Amino acid sequence: MKSAVLTSRPTFMSSIRARSRVSATARAARSSAARIVRIPRPSSSVVLGTKERSRIVEYVEQAMREQRQIVGVSDIMQAHTFEDIPLYDMPERTRAFLKIEDGCENFCSYCIIPYARGPVKSRQPIHIREEAEKLVRAGFREIVLTGIHLGAYGRDLAPIACGDGTERKITLADACREVLSVPGLRRLRLGSLESLELSPELFELIRSDERFCAHLHLPLQAGSDPVLHDMNRHYTTAEFAQLIEGVEREVPGIAVSTDIIVGFPGETEEMFADGLRFVEKMNFSRMHVFPYSRRTGTPAAKRKDQVPEPVKKERVHRMQALADRKSEEFHRMFLGKKMRVLFETKKDGVTDGLTDNYIRVYTGSAVTCGEIYEVEIEKLYKDGVWGTAAEKM
Predict the structure, then answer these.
(1) CATH 3.30.750.200 fits 222-333, yes or no
(2) Residue 123 class from Cβ within 10 Å (0-12 exposed, 13-18 middle, 19+ buried)?
(3) Which of 31, 54, 187, 361 is most buried as measured by Cβ atoms within 10 A of its Cβ?
(4) Class for the domain spanning 79-213
(5) How many CB atoms lie within 10 A of CB 368?
(6) Which CATH class is domain 338-392?
(7) What is the pTM of this model?
(8) Series of mean pLDDT values for 10-residue runs along the chain (393 residues)
């Protein structure tokens, strides 16, 4: 068997046992089916695009029945409906990731996703609730809402009627309310968001419902205005800083993590130094630092002023050192305090989990994974802190 894609349907599993060869291509946007089918027949029985993945069982059965290669690749840019693939099973029972949106229309110059995933497609609110109920029944304590462009959720959905005869657009806050209405849910967390798409409704939910985690991941990507412009990011560093100040004002104590791309084409040493200085001023709780990676088909990949790999590596090292220091500063703020921790994994007598503001907490106390405990934070430890668990919440 060359390759296989897992599903819970028995017919598909039987095809795997029969050593069928299955290929699924997830990034066939705007690609012609003729180019895709150059994958040789001995390597793959089924070739699918992103838009067709929900029909994988049907295609596999057809390939088995007709003993020929089946190709299902269409233009993802013409897909305007969320592909509602239901959850079947997940091995863990603490945090579940619930995708509620797909597609992106931002067209950042380094990113292939808008071409690969097409326009924004939102999951219907009722389907979000149904999936959240299923996850809670399965024993998950925390649900993380995710999407390619999560903050754009609802943009493509029909407006809903208000009591006064007017209509309003469905937003991310509506999706959050659907999940928070599920009995038994202990925590709700949001995945990565664009800072420009935060709303007063969202802030009110975070403030008013203690189950809503006080943590937002807002990608900065670069701390230099010329680099942000070349990335086709729609803000300046000053605007981003002002937005973060607003977030901290709306939800005191909230943790804000971010992403930084280092070595973008045309980034000079001066631009990189500007980025270091800007990040130094921000109160990020955690930073994910990435070296720029060329993506074929994107505007940035075509540029002639690529940063040499050794320079990128050295800059990543410097930015990561700053990220580690900022994270430690954030963690120190909670030493001696009591925090609620959802424990997730246990190894060699040490159990670890996350606070609502996304601090990794380790303990040697006798705790049960999948449960929330109040923990007194005692010291810095590894990538987070160490504490002693008290009562189960």
Answers:
(1) yes
(2) buried
(3) 361
(4) alpha beta
(5) 11
(6) mainly beta
(7) 0.80
(8) 41 48 49 47 60 63 64 51 52 82 94 90 96 94 94 93 89 97 97 86 95 96 98 96 94 95 98 98 96 95 97 97 97 97 95 96 96 97 96 86
